[in-house]
């Protein structure tokens, strides 16, 4: 596995981060539009939802926090339009629930990638803002996997490629004995690549598809 000929890390590094809270509010707004409800999400609504969601995103999402996030949107739906048929409301909340699963999976991937760097004793300080960008990309990749738009193999490869782009933007390399036998190897190479692939595959098992 050789290093990609033309890296796109500068473009990656300049991306505007989209925190997970903004991501799920945008997703919720899209669902309301797609389901033809009369609910209009104003900027004030988004700010209010952000404040209510914040406590649940101050730590990796678990079962209890998933329930809390779900309840924030359910309460908003109920408070703003009690005339929505129960079937449509249930449909909306089901889609919100599946997106919470995507965000939870993506958070677990980032935690595993951080653990990988710790195991490799990488000393470079990588700012949380870079991990925020990586989380946003991982959420998008995971959506493609959950929707069946891309295969598991493709999505895992893309996640690792995004991770490499982040590392390259901070001039981080991962030493590996296998690299000695290769010209211009990728940052994550050989057994390290296999280890990360297997770890993400295990996490995919927790993602409802």
Give structural notes:
The structure is a single chain. With 209 residues, the protein is mainly α. The chain has helices spanning 9-13, 20-34, 43-53, 63-80, 86-119, 128-146, 152-169, 191-204. The longest helix is centred in the middle third of the chain and has 34 residues, at 86-119. The radius of gyration is 19 Å and the shape is elongated. Residues 5-17 have low confidence and may be disordered.
Question: What's the short story on this structure?
Answer:
With 209 residues, the protein is mostly helical. The chain has helices at residues 9-13, 20-34, 43-53, 63-80, 86-119, 128-146, 152-169, 191-204.
Low-pLDDT stretches: 5-17
- Structural class, from helix and strand content? mainly alpha
Largest sheet: none
Shape: elongated
Please report the total strand number as a whole number. 0
Q: Indicate the mean pLDDT.
A: 84
The helix content, as a percent range, equals 55-70%
């Amino acid at each position: 596995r050789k290093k990609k000929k033309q890296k796109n890390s500068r473009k990656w590094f300049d991306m505007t981060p989209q925190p997970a809270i903004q991501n799920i509010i945008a997703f919720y707004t899209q669902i309301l539009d797609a389901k033809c409800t009369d609910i209009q999400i104003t900027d004030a609504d988004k700010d209010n939802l952000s404040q209510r969601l914040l406590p649940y995103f101050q730590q990796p999402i678990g079962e209890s926090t998933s329930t809390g996030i779900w309840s924030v949107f359910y309460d908003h739906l109920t408070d703003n339009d009690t005339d929505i048929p129960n079937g449509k409301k249930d449909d909306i909340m089901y889609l919100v629930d599946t997106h919470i699963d995507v965000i939870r999976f993506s958070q677990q991937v980032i935690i595993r990638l951080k653990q990988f760097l710790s195991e490799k004793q990488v000393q470079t300080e990588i700012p949380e803002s870079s991990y925020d960008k990586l989380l946003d990309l991982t959420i998008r990749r995971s959506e493609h996997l959950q929707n069946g738009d891309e295969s598991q193999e493709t999505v895992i490869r893309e996640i690792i490629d995004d991770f490499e782009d982040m590392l390259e933007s901070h001039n981080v390399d991962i030493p590996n004995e296998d690299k000695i036998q290769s010209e211009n190897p990728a940052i994550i190479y050989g057994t390290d690549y296999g280890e990360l692939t297997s770890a993400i595959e295990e996490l995919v098992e927790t993602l409802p598809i």
